[in-house]
Amino acid sequence: MAELDEETLAFAHRMFDLARSGDPELTAQVAAGLPANLTNDKGDTLLILAAYHNHPGTVTELLRLGADPDRFNDRGQTALAAAVFRQNRDTVESLLAAGADPHAGRPSAVETAAFFDLPEMAALLSEVSRPT
Predict the structure, then answer these.
(1) How remote is the C-alpha of 69 from its chain's centroid?
(2) CA 92/CA 86 separation, integer angstroms
(3) What secondary structure, in 3-state letters, does the chain show?
(4) Is 90's pLDDT higher than 60?
(5) How far is CA 95 from CA 10, 12, 55, in A?
(6) Statement: residue 37 has pLDDT above 80
(7) Is there a domain that residue 73 lies in?
(8) For 42-59, how does the pLDDT look when each residue is reduced to its tens digit (9 = 90+)?
(9) Which of 88, 12, 98 has its CA nearest to residue 54?
(10) What is the rounded distance in angstroms from the CA atom of residue 31 to the CA atom of residue 80?
(11) How many domains does the chain have?
């Protein structure tokens, strides 16, 4: 695999920082062609970072632009599990509406809600009925 030059790496790092901060420039970059499922060196997607850092508007826009709600990072974590951990109802609802699987990943969103004793999140996840 070819090495990325410093300028490209700096740009990628900036995009991940934009996801962490919820900056609207990120979704403009994705709309302009930046891969919606871009991952960093830990496998975190832009969506996972936006979900973990409590930016429901960014999450909704990334989903609209084609981000995969069930992609997981190198540790098996999904954006939905991150949103459940952070107890962000709006983000959880956006991800579920986009088809995120509450049982995907390790720990899954369901497992995260149970482990951290988050009854409101567990109830929200239990409302989702997924076809088998």
Answers:
(1) 7
(2) 10
(3) CCCCCHHHHHHHHHHHHHHHHCCHHHHHHHHCCCCCCCECCCCCEHHHHHHHCCCHHHHHHHHHCCCCCCCECCCCCEHHHHHHHCCCHHHHHHHHHCCCCCCCCCCCHHHHHHHCCCHHHHHHHHCCCCCC
(4) yes
(5) 29, 24, 12
(6) yes
(7) yes
(8) 999 999 999 999 999 999
(9) 88
(10) 22
(11) 1
Q: Which residue do the tokens 């409101």 mark? A: 120
Q: Where in the sequence is the domain holding 49, given as residue range(s)?
A: 18-126
The total number of residues shown for the chain amounts to: 132
- Give the pLDDT score at 4: 79
Distance CA 1, CA 24 (A): 31
The CATH number of whichever domain residue 99 belongs to comes to: 1.25.40.20
- Spell 28-51 as b/e; 16+ CB within 10 A means b: ebbeeebebebbbeeebbbbbbbb
* Residue 80, in any domain of the structure: yes
Residue 131, in any domain of the structure: no
